[in-house]
Design a protein that fits this description.
The protein is of the alpha+beta class. Strand 7 and strand 8 form a beta hairpin. The radius of gyration is 19 Å and the shape is elongated.
Length: about 160
């Protein structure tokens, strides 16, 4: 880890009420880690009996729709923008469900359940190779196992009927 201000190598130093925190000796400052934030969407249809999953380019697993939050953008705006970009479908309604930190990518994932407007999704061929509607149980079987997406999907299936 390196200081984002001066570029010197950071060392871990104890900070009261924080624990071990990266510290820059040159700047004499603690440098709390920065990480990206993204949204993840469990997508259902208006009748709430189907789940829409996607396959990304270079990946054979079905996963949830997701995308990074752009600078200056709210998470709520990112949900509708990312879904529209990836499928050309509009969002009817969405609800925040929870978050998880994805350590391999140093990424905070904010998960939403999204109700999509009826219609046939048109995948963004720059990102996706396939989008497909599944029955809820089939979606659970198709999603990447032991993934954050699977955990989000399981949680969402308990809440979808309440929307």
């Amino acid at each position: 880890m390196f200081c984002t201000v001066c570029g010197d190598k950071l060392t871990l130093m104890f900070k009261q009420d924080e624990g071990l925190v990266p510290y820059c000796k040159k700047c004499n400052e603690y440098r709390f880690p920065r990480f990206s934030t993204a949204v993840s969407m469990v997508v259902t249809n208006r009748t709430k009996d189907k789940i829409l999953l996607a396959k990304h380019i270079g990946n054979d697993d079905y996963i949830l729709f997701a995308g990074y939050i752009k600078k200056g953008e709210t998470a709520e705006k990112a949900v509708t923008r990312e879904f529209k970009e990836e499928t050309r479908l509009d969002t009817v309604k969405f609800k925040y469900m929870g978050s998880r930190y994805h350590e391999p990518k140093e990424l905070l994932m904010l998960n939403y359940v999204l109700i999509a407007e009826n219609g046939n999704p048109v995948p963004d061929t720059n990102e996706l190779t396939e989008v497909k509607w599944f029955d809820p149980q089939d979606a659970l079987e198709a999603i990447r196992k032991d993934s954050i997406a699977e955990a989000f999907l399981k949680n969402a299936l308990n809440e979808i009927k309440k929307l």
